[in-house]
Specification:
CATH superfamily of the largest domain: P-loop containing nucleotide triphosphate hydrolases
Order of helices and strands: HHHEEHHHEHEHHEHEHHEH
Helix content: 55-70%
Distance between the termini: 52 Å
Number of strands: 7
Number of helices: 13
Shape: elongated
Radius of gyration: 26 Å
Largest sheet: 5 strands, parallel
Structural class: alpha/beta
Low-confidence stretches: none
CATH class of the largest domain: Alpha Beta
Strand order of the largest sheet: 4-5-6-3-7
Length: 326
């Protein structure tokens, strides 16, 4: 509960900062366009008159006349703003979340941004937003992948990535309509984490909650909390893993595998499968390596219930750094 209270205090600060910013913007707008200020004041007065009239009976004609006057003012205001280069973002982008205007609540429900920020505190994901600024579907360039057929796989890295890309795009587009899980495997530097982040960004923008964590980070968090006997936080963290809309576990196999971590991994995977909660796992482990490193009941769940996508080719990070296109 302490983390939740901390997040709510953050929301209060964000909302107050946004309100100050919007007041300052409105003052500048009114100084430049006094007619907009006059319209806003007139519309405010009309709103009060309408509210009073609607409490009475037999005032339909007056109500209709006031609404007509208000509609005319709205159109005049919109025209003035458009002609002078103002758009709707001028009045909304001061908020970190336009859905709830930084209140944390959409109606009587917790807004998705509140849920996501609580998750971020648990998993120390404050840098995720910065990553997603440049790791998204729009930034993907298929030309970094070689167009020469790889003899070992009978397909070129580019053609293979076109297939992978298409599956990832459909996964994001069908999210919430079709239950699916993805298993990315291949050498480092081939785009596994990048595509995970692309999916995460699109789903976050649509109001879904996402946890992105490395396997090592995930199990370190779980063990630290359990050993510290912080039962409240442990329960909240485990519940988040089970309930988040999309769980992304990166670098599976880099964690220190113990009986405890293996048991936790099985529980996370199995419970999410039962509850139809999608998961993406990214790893250097091939299916054969997976079977060598984990219990049968874990590998059978993953290989049987996940769409397996093999990333092939050469590390593209150097090509991206120096702008080398195939």
């Amino acid at each position: 509960m302490e983390i939740f209270r901390e997040v709510l205090r953050d929301f209060e600060r964000d909302k107050a900062a946004a309100a100050r910013e919007l007041r300052a913007r409105k003052e500048l707008l009114y100084a430049r366009l006094p007619r907009v200020k006059a319209i806003d004041e007139k519309m405010s007065n009309l709103g009060l008159k309408l509210a009073r009239l609607m409490l009475r009976d037999g005032e339909a004609a007056k109500i209709a006349a006031l609404r007509q006057e208000n509609d005319a003012l709205v159109k005049e205001r919109e025209a003035l703003l458009y002609e002078n280069g103002y758009d709707e973002a001028f009045f909304t982008d001061a908020y970190k979340c336009a859905y709830c205007e930084d209140s944390g609540f959409a109606g009587d429900e917790h807004c998705h941004c509140l849920k996501q920020r609580v998750l971020a505190r648990y998993f120390e994901m404050s840098n995720l937003g910065k990553i997603l600024d440049h790791e998204n579907f729009d930034a993907f360039n298929i030309n970094y992948y070689a167009d020469r057929t790889d003899p070992a796989h009978g397909i070129s890295p580019r053609a293979n990535m076109e297939r992978v890309w298409d599956i990832c795009l459909k996964f994001e587009q069908n999210f919430g309509k079709k239950f699916e899980n993805l298993y990315f495997y291949g050498e480092t530097g081939l785009g596994k984490t990048f595509l995970s982040n692309c999916i995460a960004r699109e789903l976050l923008n649509k109001g879904h909650t996402v946890i992105y964590t490395t396997a090592a980070q995930l199990f370190r968090q779980v063990e630290d909390i359990r050993f510290n006997r912080d039962k409240t936080r442990a329960q909240a963290l485990i519940a988040a893993i089970y309930e988040v809309d999309l769980l992304i576990i990166d670098d599976l196999g880099t964690e220190f595998i113990t009986t405890v971590t293996a048991s936790e991994l099985f529980s996370f995977i199995n419970t999410r499968l039962i509850n139809k909660k999608p998961t993406i796992i990214s790893t250097n482990l091939s299916p054969a390596d997976l079977e060598d490193n984990y219990y049968d009941r874990i590998t059978s769940r993953i290989l049987g219930e996940y769409t397996t996508l093999h990333f092939i080719g050469e590390d593209i990070r150097v090509a991206k750094k120096y702008g080398i296109i195939s």
